[in-house]
Design goal:
Elements lengths: L2 H21 L4 H10 L6 H17 L7 H9 L3 H5 L25 H9 L6 H4 L6 E5 L13 E3 L2 E7 L9 H4 L3 E3 L2 H7 L9 E4 L6 H9 L5 E6 L2 H5 L1 H8 L4 E5 L5 H4 L7 E7 L20 H19 L2 E11 L8 H10 L3 E4 L7 E3 L2 E4 L1 H4 L4 E8 L2
Parallel strand pairs: 5-6, 5-8, 6-7, 8-9
Antiparallel strand pairs: 1-3, 1-4, 2-3, 9-13, 10-13, 11-12, 12-13
Helix pairs in contact: 1-2, 1-3, 1-4, 3-4
Length: 391
């Protein structure tokens, strides 16, 4: 592909991504993979260059643009070499019109920025939300220790974590194939520690998804005890079983939940769990570094639906905790209405529950829990609280 053709390919992809964000379609990574699966002629350098253009344009724009071309013009406005490729030659994009408008740069839609500021974030915290994320892995001690990984660096405060060079093809590493490492952001590893999981415990990962935190819990428990991973999403939960086999996590039981019938399906765990971990569905405002187009998908109605779901799963989880046990509530959101506000409301409505103190390797006290942010902690953004049930 010529440089101009790469730019046009990025524009075409951005058109698809903008439409998908508007209509709740596929994620950007999925659309990019589909695009190149249909264009086998594009080499690895072409794919990498187009992908970098696409994500650079997405990160530059807070508001969802009108079109992929408007998005790329915003990027070209500060890059003369890129602007010069708008020449209409061959498969390249048409020349820039005299009155053609580029999309407006920004960090996020203004209504979301207002919510983030109300939640105590401002200054350097906001632009850091859309920086590129590093590649972190967790060492899995259920397997033998891996050989040294070239370029890997330790993460302060996390002896079981490494940060790998950007662009590392993780699936080609022998350590990954052997199950000795798992891809998991340092922030995700840190908030999982709030469960204080030890061997012999009975633990529920209520919103397990594909099981990143489940596998971390199994390692903390040394494969001793009972670990139940549940979710309402069959496709996501189905990915956990093969991951558990690769990781050597033998105590994991998976259970698909039917929305509205969760209590019935979990009746055998009623008031018997030492700890219930809830990685609740949320807006994902703390993960924009990895999914920057997610800023374009959010609406006030969606956040309201998510907060209702969060209240629902808190009630389900609380009913599984034994007297003296704990409920760990996690969201990868930095909005107080999904984090500190949810915990405050739960404590106000549930006598006999208190917020337990947490000593984690990173983060700052926020409400009844701890908050991690990209700017302060070099992790994804999280809120976590540990709630203790009275004996």
């Amino acid at each position: 592909m010529t440089p101009g053709a790469r730019v046009q390919a990025a524009i075409d992809l951005l058109d698809s991504i903008v439409a998908a964000a508007r209509d709740s379609g596929a994620a950007a990574d999925t659309l990019i993979a589909r695009y190149f699966a249909e264009r086998r002629y594009a080499g690895s350098k072409d794919r990498r260059a187009v992908r970098e253009l696409v994500y650079a344009a997405i990160r530059r724009l807070g508001e969802r643009p009108e079109s992929g071309r408007a998005a790329m013009l915003a990027l070209a406005a500060t890059d003369p070499e890129l602007a010069a490729l708008f020449d209409g030659v061959g498969h390249g994009p048409a020349a820039i019109g005299a009155n053609e408008k580029a999309a407006t740069p920004g960090t996020a839609p203004e209504w979301i920025l207002a919510k983030l500021r109300e939640s105590g974030l401002d200054g350097e915290e906001l632009p850091a939300l859309i920086d590129r994320a590093p590649l972190d892995v967790r060492l899995n001690w259920l397997r033998d220790a891996p050989d040294p990984i070239e370029g890997a660096e330790p993460i302060p405060g996390l002896p079981d974590a490494l940060r790998l060079p950007s662009g590392t093809n993780i699936e080609t590493l022998q350590a990954y194939q052997d199950g000795a490492i798992e891809v998991q952001d340092a922030g995700s590893q840190i908030v999982t520690l709030a469960a204080k999981a030890i061997p012999g415990m009975r633990v529920v990962d209520l919103c397990a998804g594909a099981g990143g935190k489940t596998l971390a819990l199994a390692a903390l428990m040394g494969n001793e005890g009972a670990l139940l991973a549940t979710d309402t999403d069959r496709a996501r939960l189905s990915r956990l079983a093969p991951r558990a086999v690769r990781a050597g996590a033998t105590i994991v039981e998976t259970r698909l939940l039917n929305p509205g019938h969760e209590t019935e399906i979990l009746s055998d765990w009623s008031e018997s769990a030492d700890c219930v971990l809830i990685d609740a569905p949320c807006s994902g405002t703390g993960t924009w570094r990895r999914n920057p187009e997610a800023r374009w998908r959010l609406t006030p109605d969606r956040i309201e639906r998510l907060t209702r779901t969060q209240r629902h799963v808190l009630e389900i989880g609380a009913a599984l905790v034994k007297p003296g046990g704990a409920l760990v509530y996690i969201v990868c959101s930095l909005l107080d209405e999904e984090g500190a506000g949810q915990v405050s409301a739960f404590l106000a409505d549930h006598a006999g529950w208190t917020a337990d103190s947490l000593a984690l390797p990173a983060g700052r006290a926020h409400g009844a829990g701890i908050r991690l942010t990209p700017a302060h902690d070099a992790t994804d953004g999280f809120f976590v609280a540990r709630l203790q049930r009275a004996c």
